Amino acid sequence: MTFFTIVVRGLMRRPVRTGLTLVGISIGIAAVVALVGISRGFETSWEAGMKTRGTDVVVSNMGSALTPKPFSASVVDRITPIPGVAETCSLLVELMSIEKAEMMIVSARQWGGFSWKNLKVVTGRLPHDAKERAVVLGKTAAEMLQKKVGDTLQLETEELAVVGIVDGGAVVENGSVVLSLSLLQELTGSEGKINIIDLRVTPGTSKEQLNKICDDITKAVPEARAVIAGEHIRDSQAYRMISAMSWGTSLLAVLVGVLGVMNTMLMTVFERTQEICILLAVGWKRRRIVRMVLLESALLGLLGGLGGVALGFIGVKLMINLPAIRGLLEPDLNLTLLARSVGIAVVVGIFSGLYPAWRSSRLSPSQALHG
After folding, report:
1. What is the CB neighbour count within 10 angstroms for residue 364?
2. What is the distance between the alpha carbons of residues 319 and 126, in angstroms, rounded to a whole number?
3. Angle at CA 187, nearest 5°, toward 135 and 237?
């Protein structure tokens, strides 16, 4: 009988208890995969949206909400003279409930601005001008709202014509309702207000120069802040809070797994006291006993981690199809996150087995006589 066989046999002595322990670890690791993957996906989805629009710098006032606070559109006049700024496009982006969708991105863009140019028309057309009372829908938004070209869309108090379905090249873009800036300002009573300015800088600008441009813009526009595209979401209080809550909730779930593994391993040591003492009597070193218990707990962690990764992956795929989330993000379930999650589970297993392993090492061969 090999060392590994003894380890596996130890876990299989109480299959129901071992199974329940694995479920506990799996749920904790699934929480890590799902919550952290979704929070990171929110960041990467917005970053991809910036990239497809060709945005180099974003000027906004990211507070505690998921969308920036509005400010005066006149700040653009203070930004355009700054050296290195090649082109600007003002936006008013809101998260709104639209017909059947509980929450959807409404992206109002300055007519003629470069943020329109990445939209590839799938069917229909783009609006003729800024005054046309019309919208175009990202292809995901069109599916969610069950709209096609020629239908109307209720936005605030007015029905607007759907004139086109577009592919924006990113999840955020494809999940958006897109219209002219002046039209949304009129419908929401936000004349003269914007909450994002997309900037393109002069080609060939270095990272150092890009940072200087951001600093110059922030000084010129104290009511907002300029950051490199993709980083503005990370600066928001809402995102930081969501990220912290994701890790906090995950760690609580993992803690439950720690207690479960520790309880299982302690019960295993108590039940196998005579067996362990006999192994010591026939020549096993105490460090080998310790290694056996730690390997059992590490194996529990490994199996629970693999199960948790699978459970979390399936759960996330189901969650992103919920009406409240679909079209807003694409979870970031990269191999690094999955491997780290399994690694956390193994560490949890080893940590949970430390005390039971120490208890087992304190046993004496003479105790086998009392079995």
Report:
1. 10
2. 32
3. 90
- In whole angstroms, what is the distance from residue 256 CA to residue 271 CA? 23
| pLDDT of amino acid 79 | 94
Crossing angle of the two packed helices 335-361 and 237-271, in degrees rounded to 10 = 30
Across 244-257, average pLDDT: 69
Among residues of the chain, what percentage have pLDDT more than 70? 84
Collapsed DSSP state (helix, strand, coil) of residue 355:
helix
CB 147 within 8 A of CB 98: no
Number of Cβ within a 10 Å radius of residue 336: 9
Number of neighbouring beta carbons within 10 Å of residue 191: 9
Residue pair 282/337 in contact by the 8 Å Cβ criterion: no
Q: Where are the alpha helices (DSSP H) in 66-166?
A: 76-79, 139-145
* CA–CA gap between residue 328 and residue 326 (Å, rounded): 6
Q: H-type helices in the chain, by residue range? A: 3-12, 15-31, 37-53, 76-79, 139-145, 171-174, 181-188, 207-220, 237-271, 273-281, 286-319, 335-361
* Paired tokens of 290: 């310790």
Residue 148: the pLDDT is 94
Report the distance separating Cα 344 and Cα 250, nearest Å.
11
236 has a pLDDT exceeding 60: no
* DSSP string of 246-296, one letter each residue: HHHHHHHHHHHHHHHHHHHHHHHHHHTHHHHHHHHHTT--HHHHHHHHHHH
Angle of helix 237-271 relative to helix 15-31, nearest 10 degrees?
170
Eight-class DSSP state of 136: E
Q: Which helix (H) or strand (E) holds 98?
A: strand 85-98
Amino acid of residue 326: R
Is this prediction's pTM over 0.90? no
